[in-house]
Amino acid sequence: MTSQPLRLAEEYGPSPGESELAVNPFDGLPFSSRYYELLKQRQALPIWAARFTFLEQLESNPTGVVLVSGEPGSGKSTQIPQWCAEFALARGFQKGQVTVTQPYPLAARSLALRVADEMDLTLGHEVGYSIPQEDCTGPNTLLRFCWDRLLLQEVASTRGTGAWGVLVLDEAQERSVASDSLQGLLQDARLEKLPGDLRVVVVTDPALEPKLRAFWGNPPIVHIPREPGERPSPIYWDTIPPDRVEAACQAVLELCRKELPGDVLVFLPSEEEISLCCESLSREVESLLLQGLPPRVLPLHPDCGRAVQAVYEDMDARKVVVTHWLADFSFSLPSIQHVIDSGLELRSVFFPSGSCLCLYPKSFLELEAPPLPQPRVCEENLSSLVLLLKRRQIAEPGECHFLDQPAPEALMQALEDLDYLAALDDDGDLSDLGVILSEFPLAPELAKALLASCEFDCVDEMLTLAAMLTAAPGFTRPPLSAEEAALRRALEHTDGDHSSLIQVYEAFIQSGADEAWCQARGLNWAALCQAHKLRGELLELMQRIELPLSLPAFGSEQNRRDLQKALVSGYFLKVARDTDGTGNYLLLTHKHVAQLSSYCCYRSRRAPARPPPWVLYHNFTISKDNCLSIVSEIQPQMLVELAPPYFLSNLPPSESRDLLNQLREGMADSTAGSKSSSAQEFRDPCVLQ
Q1: Quick one: which of 294, 277, 87 has its CA closest to 197?
Q2: Residue 663 CB-half CA count within 13 A
Q3: d(CA 254, CA 683)
Q4: Which residues contact 70 (CB under 8 A, 6 or more apart)?
Q5: SS3 state at 487
């Protein structure tokens, strides 16, 4: 049966005074006056002119795939999902029929809040969102925003994919591993449980349009017209400032002194610099002599949690939003009139209608900035992706379609790493252990360490550590005062950063999850709350699959050794050795040289503390200082004992490998001698008898 287009209130054109006569078709209640206020804003967006064209293509296109191409700020992320919900309701779908993916959890939550407001619906009922540690949906949810990696995990799970009428892959130009993988799986028609009449909408920046058109076989494209009017020319600095945070702060203060209308968006490359900029600006703006209220300084990054919604709120004061790449691709902020760009992200930024100040020369942008981010599937470790593909019984991940095929070496490295972790059997399929690893929303090496804790009787501590490493990995900025530095040192543990994270979590819980306690120590309160939720989810998952648990024993000597063994069982792939006694660490697997992060507890200890000779690390970041972050000392004997022998044999040639192999031979001789001695002791009494 052919569906009829849904006629919403805006098609009838009622005024706010007539709102009691118009009923919201999604919940059967009259539209509120706020609905009409927001409707005027929606109708002013560039995308509104393409509404009927989009709905027509979605209804009539035989392939079921529609591309939407438009510039940042045109309204794609807020309007396309609403129109898909109209389409789904017109076809008679009742619940869970529209899923919208976002490359960042924060964007999924924020867009759900905004769209529910625009649709005049209650969040958690007809409109909801699913992100890590937070599922705000219900049985009547028609429109769900979802983190793309979470949706990929759902697809790979044996628990099924759910019923989708429309799947919207938003921000495709972000090129996240999950988004590219979902497109590949859909293209390969491997999602057997999907309904046959599925509609797929891919929303992108115009720069990626040609590649997507070729990938999907030339589907219809809905082009969003550019906003009319001339745009101001960017103002470039002659040189790159030595302190980009200070330069950005001064540029914001200068705008405020001129009292030009409109909100300000500041792009900085890291959360640390965002925090420093916000703290500096919050102090400075109070002293400005302005006619109105002082500007409101708002950080915007993944750890902001629900506080991000403040960027959408109407305020009497000017808003200064300090962010990184997240706002460029995942947020439409219509009140922004001025942009200050540090240029360090090397991305094309949202262009306002007021002014754009670039804290770098024009030649720097022309030489360095790519039109779009590089595909993450060509940059990131693919072990988690390969584990998920194996879970879907895609025997050869290299045969899966991608917008850009990952290097064969990267796929082979991922398979090799999973083999070392015992996640694969002799045929290259998932082992029983691999199936369990794929159930956890963790990196494979962290999931393996958590499972090893069952054997070493330290599950309680590893649950905490797994949650902290995933959601709240320590400090994100340097201490702002001697008092704060002293409070931080009190949380450090002698065994290293991993035990320090456990100590931080326990102190946080003992404080009653107090936000002021976190602020005094430079800790992210929202991230620690997320870690608490994730720990509960991991515990529930372990109970569901009937894995053994253990009582808390943190601080005991036995627990200290057991925790190290569990960590080495999963993280033997991430070990480094200090080659010269000065903190220059050679990575065993890649032969890179790196230093400890400035936030590492070993760096904050008073001289003449010597760096630990062998360390296990959580992350290696290639940056100006090549950092190892979240580091703990280990003994090489434990590495030889717990790592697979063929892993040690396959390490690249180095002095470290030779030392480990010598140690392994010595331990083997010692074991053989011990067995021989035991056998002789057994035989001698027999002779005497």
Answers
A1: 87
A2: 17
A3: 90
A4: 46, 47, 76, 203, 205, 206, 223, 224
A5: helix
Q: At 28, list the tokens.
A: 């059967």
CA distance 425 to 445: 17
335 or 398, which is more confident: 335
pLDDT tens digits, one per residue of 538-578? 999 999 999 999 999 998 999 999 999 999 999 999 999 99
Q: What is the dihedral of CA 54, 57, 58, 59, to 10 degrees?
A: 120
CA distance 87 to 160: 24
Quick one: pLDDT at residue 634?
95
Checking if the pLDDT of 17 tops 60, the result is no
Residue pair 198/167 in contact by the 8 Å Cβ criterion = yes
To which residue do tokens 């949380």 refer?
Answer: 491
Q: Which residue has the higher pLDDT, 384 or 667?
A: 384
**Separation between Cα atoms, residue 88 and residue 26, nearest integer Å:** 11
Q: Which two tokens stand for residue 389?
A: 């593909």
| Matching residue, tokens 């969003």 | 224
Which residues, other chains included, contact 301 with Cβ-Cβ below 8 Å and sequence gap of 6+?
106, 271, 274, 323, 324, 326
* pLDDT tens profile 588-634: 998 788 999 888 888 877 665 688 999 999 988 775 567 898 999 99
DSSP 308-363: GGGGTS--SSPEEEEESHHHHHH---TTEEEEEE--TT-SPPPP-SSEEEESS-HH
Helix (H) or strand (E) holding 633: strand 627-633
Kind and range of the H or E run holding 65: strand 65-69
Q: Are strands 627-633 and 614-621 parallel, antiparallel or unpaired?
A: antiparallel
For the stretch 380-385, contacts whose Cβ atoms lie closer than 8 Å and that sit 24 or more positions apart, written own/partner, are 380/177, 381/413, 381/414, 381/417, 382/177, 382/406, 382/410, 382/411, 382/413, 382/414, 383/414, 383/417, 383/418, 383/443, 383/444, 383/445, 384/443, 384/444, 385/177, 385/181, 385/414
pTM: 0.83
Tokens representing residue 440 in the block:
């956890």
Q: Which residue has the tokens 């649950």?
A: 463
Helix, strand, coil percentages in the chain from 3-state DSSP, rounded to 5:
50, 15, 40
Among candidates 325, 322, 337, 411, which has minimal Cα distance to 370? 325
Q: What is the CA radius of gyration of the chain?
A: 28
SS3 at position 683:
helix
DSSP 277-311: HHHHHHHHHTT---SSPPPEEEEESGGGGGGGGGG
Name, in order, each residue with C-beta under 8 angstroms of 270's C-beta and a sequence gap of 6 or more.
324
Across 309-322, average pLDDT: 80
Q: Report the alpha-carbon distance of residue 542 to residue 559 in Å, rounded.
A: 20
Q: Are 511 and 525 a contacting pair, CB within 8 Å?
A: no
| Contact in structure between 538 and 479 (CB atoms under 8 Å) | no
**Distance between CA atoms of residues 607 and 343, nearest Å:** 37
Structure tokens at 532: 């608490």
Angle at 183 between CA 534 and CA 1, to 5 degrees: 105
